[in-house]
Amino acid sequence: MDNKPKETSHWQTQSHKNSNRLLFWNGGWVLSMAVATFGPRFIWSFQTDLSMLAVLLNLGMGLGVILATKRHLNGLDEMHQKIFRDAAVLTLGVGLVCGLSYEMLEDIKLIGFEPEISHLILLMIITFATGMMNGHRKYR
Fold first, then answer.
1. What is the CA radius of gyration of the chain?
2. What is the tens place of the pLDDT at every residue in 58-79?
3. Domain's final residue, options 54, 75, 96
4. Domain that holds residue 104
């Protein structure tokens, strides 16, 4: 009796569940970020307790994203784990080096505006996506 198809099917089912869980937590985190950002201004007139509750909800959802990402990563095969980790390491390095340099540009008066975190986040998203695509292309 061959158990290989059953094991593959179980792995695919588990991988699908992990991906859906990650999608759920990411969607919830983005939604909670929107509530924490726009709720004080447009819904509850900057009431401190509601604003603090929204921020705490956002932090809790962020923790959920982290745990779901870890679970998703642990459920991947070795090659996909390597691709993910390589892209994550590249993203961490680029984010740290470029973020600190970007902040320094204002401190030493080379730019006349205050650096925005959204610029760094976009750079990190592009770096991670590029790292993932390059990894998949490399190991195809």
1. 20
2. 999 999 999 999 999 999 999 9
3. 75
4. 77-140
